[in-house]
Design goal:
Layout lengths: L2 H4 L1 H4 L7 H8 L16 H28 L1 H23 L2 H19 L13 H18 L10
Helix pairs in contact: 4-5, 4-6, 5-6, 5-7, 6-7
Length: 156
C-alpha cells in the first residue's frame, strides 16, 4: 500500500457542488434559509416581502389601468413595461416564483376590480382592444416571469 492510498482524504468523495451543496447548507437545523445572494432571511422577512410585492402589484395595476386608457399606444406599452419590471423585480428580490405570484396577484386583483362597472354605468375600462391587450399582456408577462429559470449566482 502506498501512503497516499491509505489516507482518508483520497478515499472520500469530493464535496458536493451546485444544488446539492446549497440544499445541504440550507437544511441545517436552527439556521434560517438563505436568500439568492447568500444572506440568511427569516420567514417573517420573506412574508413581509410578499406582502409588499402584493401591494406594489395593486398600485402598478391601478396606475397601468389609468395610463393605458389615457395615452393608448404609448400608455399601453408603458403600463406593460411597468408590470414586467414589477414581476421580474419580484423574482429577483425574493429569488422564488412566489415573489412573481404575489406581485401578479396584486396586479390581477386591481385590474379585475377596476374592470367591474358601477351600477351607474361608469367604470375605468370602457371596453376595447387596449384593455384586452393590457389584461392578457400583463397575465402573459407574469406567466413568463414565473417560468423563468433562476440565474446562477456569480462566483465570488
Amino acid at each position: 500500500m502506498s501512503p497516499s492510498s491509505s489516507s482518508p482524504k483520497s478515499s472520500s468523495n469530493p464535496p458536493p457542488r451546485g444544488r446539492a451543496a446549497s440544499s445541504d447548507r440550507l437544511a441545517a437545523p436552527g439556521r434560517p434559509a438563505a436568500a439568492p445572494d447568500g444572506f440568511p432571511v427569516s420567514r417573517t422577512a420573506r412574508y413581509v416581502w410578499y406582502g409588499l410585492l402584493f401591494v406594489l402589484g395593486l398600485l402598478v395595476g391601478t396606475a397601468g389601468a389609468l395610463v393605458q386608457a389615457a395615452w393608448l399606444p404609448a400608455g399601453l406599452l408603458l403600463a406593460l413595461l411597468a408590470a414586467a419590471g414589477l414581476f421580474y423585480g419580484g423574482l429577483r428580490a425574493t429569488g422564488t416564483q412566489i415573489g412573481v405570484a404575489a406581485a401578479g396577484g396584486g396586479w390581477l386583483v386591481a385590474v379585475v376590480l377596476l374592470s367591474f362597472g358601477r351600477p351607474e354605468g361608469d367604470g375605468v375600462f370602457g371596453g376595447g382592444v387596449g384593455e384586452l391587450l393590457f389584461l392578457f399582456g400583463g397575465m402573459g408577462i407574469a406567466v413568463m416571469c414565473t417560468t423563468l429559470a433562476r440565474l446562477p449566482r456569480p462566483a465570488r
